[in-house]
Amino acid sequence: MTSFKRPSRRVAVATLLLLAMLTWHAETIAGQLTASWVDNTADAVGISVERATGSTGAFTEITTTGPAVFTYTDLTVADGATYCYRVRAYNPIAYSDYSNTACGTTAEAISLAVVMMGTGSAVVSSAPSGILCGTTCSGTFGSGTVVTLTATPATVAPTGSTFMGWSGACAGTGSCSVTLTSAAMVTATFTQQSQSQPLTLTVGASGKGTVTSTPAGINCGKTCSVTYPSGTAVTLTATPGAGFAFTGWGGACTGTGSCAVSMTTAQSVTATFRNMPGKR
Fold first, then answer.
1. What is the pTM of this model?
2. Is the pLDDT of residue 127 over 60?
3. Sign (positive/negative) of CA torsion 127, 131, 137, 142?
4. Fewest CB atoms within 10 A around its CB: which of 102, 106, 108, 153?
């Protein structure tokens, strides 16, 4: 215990012991160092915290605390730098001796960038936070930080996007984990899913007769061209007029039965009706 003498009274402020310097941890933008100590005083009204840059720098007071505070987190440190700390207690008339000195080094700040490629749209986010691409496509993290990236393709109707995979610091289509020891870049590729385009079925008829469809739409000779959604299965039926016979299909179908057409591309069908002499 250190004593401080004054003419009219004797006030004692005990020496503090700075126990440990906790390892700094990285935030997205800035680092921090945390000091903690044991307060052995009985009459202190606060703690004076001093800091020096480097192990040989001059100490200056950076803050004071209340009497029941045992830690201080320094948020004003630079990346990749060493700082030393000491503390002492005080009351209205005196200061205690200084504690021992403890030093810590902040991690170097390292950048991680994400590049979006392809025709699709998506979001890439990071844990810890800092990257939310396409808004923020790069972030700075402490050296040694493990950053996990997650790709979320857009699912906007009627089309969406497909995640094709990572390249650069990661590969595959799962989550991407990068341990930052140097600046890194990751590419995420997305493709837009194909949109189903409507396709046209055209029917031509010669002679006297009609061609109808299931699902409805074709009623040729009045309506001989209809657009269907891609992939639709259309069945055409030929009905000859009086005195005519149906003699067969041409184009996308053959034969004289019903005509089944799958609308994977635009299709064209002809139906031939022949006059049968003596028939009405």
1. 0.48
2. yes
3. negative
4. 108
